[in-house]
Amino acid sequence: MKKISLPFIGFLQALGIMFYCSLVGVLFWQGNNLFGPPFTFLGPTLFLVLFIVSAVVCALLALGYPFILFWEKKQTKEAIRLVAYTTAWLFFFFLLILFTLIIF
Questions:
Q1: What's the distance, CA 36 to chain centroid?
Q2: How confident is the model at residue 1 (pLDDT cuts 50, 70, 90)?
Q3: Angstrom distance (rounded) from CA 63 to CA 47
Q4: Tens digits of per-residue pLDDT, 59-87?
Q5: Mean pLDDT of the chain
Q6: Is the Cβ–Cβ distance between 85 and 6 less than 8 Å?
Q7: What are the CA-CA distances from residue 102 to residues 11, 68, 72 (Å)?
Q8: Where are the beta strands (DSSP E) in the chain?
Q9: How far is CA 99 from the centre of its chain?
Q10: 74: left (phi over 0), alpha (psi -120 to 50) or beta
Q11: Does the first or last residue of the chain, that is N or C, have fewer Cβ atoms within 10 Å of its Cβ?
Q12: What are phi and psi of 100, to 5 degrees?
């Protein structure tokens, strides 16, 4: 079995986070069209629940495998490097989106 490099795993983790954030962004963008304007406390409540679920999903995507590397495989340096690679890829995606917004 071929071993996947840490930078590529970091790229995949960051890509997963970007995909999830894009889905949440579409939900925010089209929320009124899909659900109508909120008339009760359920709108803010739904936002807060989605916020917490998003934090958990992003934490699992970004820190799940590094935790396994750290806790089960005792590969502390690799776990830290993977978190750094994922963060670097997320920053790259952030800059890419920012430049895209500036250009268009």
A1: 27
A2: low
A3: 24
A4: 999 999 999 999 999 999 999 999 999 99
A5: 94
A6: yes
A7: 24, 39, 44
A8: none
A9: 19
A10: left
A11: N
A12: -65, -40
Four-residue CA torsion sign, 90, 11, 93, 48? negative
What mean pLDDT comes out for the span 29-45?
85
Q: Cα–Cα distance between 26 and 29 in angstroms, integer?
A: 5
- 60 class by beta-carbon count within 10 Å (0-12 exposed, 13-18 middle, 19+ buried): middle
Give the chain's length.
104
- Which phi-psi region, left, alpha or beta, contains residue 6 (left: φ > 0; alpha: ψ -120 to 50)? alpha
Percent of the chain whose pLDDT exceeds 70 = 99
- If you search the block for the tokens 């699992």, which residue do you land on? 60
- Alpha-carbon distance values, 27 to 10, 24, 32, 33, 40 (Å): 26, 5, 9, 10, 19
